[in-house]
Design a protein that fits this description.
The protein is an alpha+beta fold and 529 residues long. The protein has 3 domains: 326 residues, no CATH class; 84 residues, Immunoglobulins (Immunoglobulin-like, Sandwich); 105 residues, no CATH class. 29% of the residues lie in helices and 29% in strands. The strands form 7 sheets. Strands 20, 22, 23, 24, 25 and 26 form a 6-stranded mixed β-sheet that branches. The protein has a 5-stranded mixed β-sheet with strand order 4-10-9-6-7. β24 and β25 form a beta hairpin. The longest helix is centred in the first third of the chain and has 36 residues. It is elongated. The N and C termini lie far apart (103 Å).
Length: 529
């Protein structure tokens, strides 16, 4: 079985799929190690590419000296090197900016942006998603990154001869999926919003390492093309590393653990290199691309370890060598959290915000609906939260239910449904009591207040009765006054207020959002001083 023609590119593509799957999860402490593992593997592959790319320019220049027709290919060497360096430095500068913004924010990526946790140095702001969202989404650096990567891809392609360029498009692995975000169930405004919004820094580091790997792989493919054009053959690496690229490193009990195992080395498909792969001593079937697939049932929860070893015939020396490495993954159980943003009650007439999250499940995988009493409906917002609207109060023992379902998960939570509490009618923010005649005369009407109510709701006075009782004079009534603002007759009586008068406001009826009919909220009494 031959080694795949471009195992580096294959490795990165698979690891990027792993990262994409991980990003879909609600990030927890158990899977941050998975992000670090992917990032470490990508950085290791980048170092291997740098070593390989460093040796090719000399070969190209030496062979170009033998024939003037080949000088044009030698002239492209510094162009591809400078292009790769520029792209890598751009990504490094962006990473430095993000690390500092999520760290001590002193303008540079330095020791203040890291911390020592039990002897392990890690990013201080690895859980920070405000900095990444602010810079990459709000300030447009994510869209700039996308455009830069597409520009670099075009510049790499221009280094191939024009008549052959179309055949080498797949040799430049810089890819931007600019379509998935448009079809997302949760509305997204851009590729950057879809890729980076609300993503912690620690989860994004492998993405930037992947972009750097795409750049270095593109450089390697262009250099190998130039070697071939000056009469050489594509370089064959004789250093191999076992790589395991799992679909998930944190799996749920009852799911299957799946990973791709392969060598991170480059070899042409014409090289008759025999490859055999075993996991925990059991042989695996190796595909034509040099990749074997290992699966295991996720039974008991906890950390699991497996060992992969690969035997390979070195395409340069013919020597058979074996390589071995051990890997880990976590098995956990799913859980769900349904949290009302305000309180454990839904109110009629106002939108009730709710947050729904499930460990190990992306928001796109969850199905959320309502059942039970209360006549409730639930609608998803663009930011991943939900809004509940209800139409009738629940009785004792009745509940409105929010139901959440996903693969391997079913959960629900009960909520009571109430109408908005009775408002408190006031004049000058006073329920009743003593009021000066001057203050009393400037009142324009009754104002109902919802004291202690967390929602944005406004109640309206529909009707009330008013009576002025002056000293040693007959009372002056106003019957069935419509609305909360004093009409001409009521205002006239208000202006008569003198010390010793008593004003009664009775049968005050208010209507709040969601009310079918007005409710009687009592009365007020004011003694004029």
């Amino acid at each position: 079985m031959s080694i795949p023609k471009e195992p580096r590119q294959l490795m990165i593509n698979i690891m990027y799929l792993v990262l994409t799957a991980l990003l879909a999860l609600n990030v927890s402490a158990e899977i941050f190690n998975a992000f670090e593992m992917v990032d470490k593997g990508l950085n290791s592959a980048n170092e291997t590419l740098d070593e390989s790319n460093a040796s090719l320019p000399v070969t190209i220049r030496d062979r170009a000296k033998k024939n003037k027709e080949f000088e044009k290919y030698a002239e492209r060497v510094p162009i591809v090197q400078n292009l790769s360096q520029e792209a890598s430095e751009y990504i490094d500068a962006l990473v430095d900016k993000l690390v500092d913004e999520a760290g001590d924010r002193n303008g540079v990526n330095d020791e203040g942006d890291y911390r020592d946790i039990n002897g392990k140095i890690e990013l201080k702001g690895k859980r920070d998603y405000d900095a990444t969202t602010r810079l990459l989404v709000d300030q447009g650096l994510g869209e700039e990154l996308k455009n830069k990567m597409l520009e670099y891809k075009e510049e790499f392609l221009n280094l191939f001869d024009e008549e052959e360029r179309a055949n080498y498009v797949n040799k430049i692995p810089i890819e931007i999926d600019d379509e998935s975000w448009k079809n997302s169930q949760t509305r997204r405004d851009s590729w950057a919003d879809f890729t980076f919004n609300h993503m912690p820094l620690g989860a994004l580091m492998p993405i930037f390492s992947k972009f750097k790997n795409d750049i270095k792989s593109s450089e390697a493919n262009v250099l190998n093309y130039l070697v071939k054009k000056v009469g050489g053959e594509e370089v064959v690496l004789d250093q191999f590393t076992v790589v395991s690229s799992p679909k998930k490193t944190y799996v749920i009990k009852g799911e299957r653990f799946e990973t791709d195992i392969f060598l991170s080395a480059s070899a042409g498909t014409q090289n008759n290199t025999g490859v055999s792969i075993r996991v925990n001593g059991s042989p695996l079937k190796v595909g034509e691309d040099g990749v074997a697939k290992f699966t295991a049932n996720a039974g008991a929860t906890g950390r699991k370890t497996y060992t992969a070893d690969i035997s390979v015939t070195n395409p340069v020396t013919g020597e058979v060598k074996s390589y071995k490495n051990s890997f880990e993954y976590e098995v956990g159980e799913r859980s769900v959290a349904i949290s009302p943003t305000k309180m454990n009650v839904f109110y009629i007439g106002v939108p009730n915000p709710v947050e729904v999250s499930a460990a190990g499940v992306s928001s796109n995988q969850m199905q959320v609906n309502m059942s039970g009493a209360g006549g409730g409906t639930i609608k998803a917002n663009a930011d991943g939260t939900y809004v509940v609207n209800v139409t009738r109060p629940t009785k004792k023992g009745e509940f409105a239910k929010i139901n959440v379902s996903a693969d391997g998960l079913n959960a629900s939570k009960d909520f009571r449904v109430k109408r908005i509490p009775d408002p408190v009618p006031t004049l000058s923010n006073k329920k009743s009591g003593v009021m000066g005649s001057g203050e009393f005369k400037i009142q324009q009407g009754i104002v109902p207040r919802l004291d202690g109510f967390d929602f944005d709701a406004r109640c309206i006075v529909q009707e009330f009765n008013m009576v002025r009782v002056p000293k040693r004079q007959d009372p002056e009534p106003v019957r069935a006054h419509k609305g909360g603002k004093f009409n001409q007759n009521a205002a006239r009586i208000i202006q008569k207020a003198v010390p010793g008068d008593i004003y009664y406001f009775e049968d005050i009826k208010c209507k709040c959002p969601g009310d079918v009919a007005a409710r009687n909220v009592g009365g007020m009494v004011y003694r004029i001083k």
